[in-house]
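User: quick one, fold this
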Amino acid sequence: MNDNIICRAEIKAKPRTSSYITVLIIVLVSILLLLPISSEKKYELRNYRKIETTISYNIIHVPIYQNTVVENNNKFEVTGAFYAFIILLVFSITFYSLYIATNISYSKQCKLELTDKIVNGVVKKSRINHRLNIPLDKIDNIEIIDLNSFFTGKTIAIRSASGLVKIPWVQNAYEFVNATLAKIEEYKQQVKEENKSLVKTTAESAAAAAKLEASQTSASKIKELKDLLDNDLISKEEFESKRRDLLDKM
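Assistant:
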């Protein structure tokens, strides 16, 4: 029979607005690095031919374009720095996009539920699914920590005898943690009441056993007195007196 689900964590890796702003800044900076801001012209005479070279610099004064004019023939070239900035831009956007896509994919495979007796779920770590099955009485502490700089939601940290488990991207972290703490307290009270009931039952059983033993002892003594009476070793009055005393003790 499945335990009743008290609360289910909403786990979803949603990029923060600041994440999109970061991407936009990367793109804008890359564009600025590719735009010519200033230029410099150089003249030289080679093989009796006049050569005019115009070098264009970006915002940090790194040459990115070069235009060479030889006898009215133009030769336009881009420098190695230009290609380096393009590669950096593509790499940054690709890496950032893959990072976001991977975390979104991982978050869809995570699960965290609170039931009457346990906290269970699945946590994705390094392409491996780790299953959680932690009894409430084994949880030492559960708290919220904020480690998600690129994504919304909070990280829930659960510490137990088996170690520390962190579940990121939880959108309703406060609701889940509060429900878990309340359930742990309720579970402790329930266990306490059960222990009290067990102690009471044990005491009552012990008292009943003692009473039964006393009853059996009195019955045995009455039988001995009857044997003495039958053998005329005690009088009937003595027998009745002692019998009444034993019956009062039962």
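User: anything notable?
Assistant: Residues 173-230 form the longest helix (58 residues).
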